Amino acid sequence: MVNQPAKPAMWREETIQSEPIFQGKIISLQVDTVSLADGRTATREIVRHPGAAAVMALLDGKLLVVDQFRKPLEKFQIEIPAGKLDGDEDPMVAAARELEEETGYRAKDLKLLSAFFTSPGFADEKLYLYFASELEPGRQQLDEDEDIQVEAITLEQAEAYIAEGRISDAKTILAVYAWKLYALTGTI
Predict the structure, then answer these.
(1) 163-188: per-residue pLDDT in tens?
(2) Which of 36, 48, 57, 179 is the most buried (most CB within 10 A)?
(3) Domain for residue 1, yes or no?
(4) Is 134 part of the annotated catalytic residue set?
(5) Catalytic option among 14, 74, 98, 144
(6) pTM, entire model
(7) 21 and 43 together in one domain
(8) Which residues span the domain enclosing 75?
(9) What is the CATH number of the domain that holds 62?
């Protein structure tokens, strides 16, 4: 083991001032002034988000995905079904709702795979990733501003889409790797 210098005590940045900048339907932005360990101050731009739920849903051995245009990226993306939490909504309820609304399928069983922060350097969004099994037809109900195509893709297609950049978001890449592990081990 390599000798490492002793770590200084961890310092929690204390907020001195918080200035709201923007309040939207999905996110809000604030700029906080914080105190640092050495007495200096710094600013932190923080995006507040209610959280989201996403679903790795397998139908007949294929992954259900949606293909939609993502304006911030200026391109079409293939992603697993996902959406924001409404208020204090249970993430599992949100996952079930988003799966049916976006794909037209319901899951008899949802299992939490992981919960993670998407970009903790500037945002507090926590995303809950669920595995959906025993799918049955439901009713697709897209939001009025949603224009998506639903596809069921093989693991090989998913890996090719990652290589091509058609799948490039963290939640979907994580789901594909979880699916690959599931295919190899039979456990999730």
Answers:
(1) 999 999 999 999 999 999 999 998 88
(2) 57
(3) no
(4) no
(5) 144
(6) 0.89
(7) yes
(8) 52-116+126-185
(9) 3.90.79.10
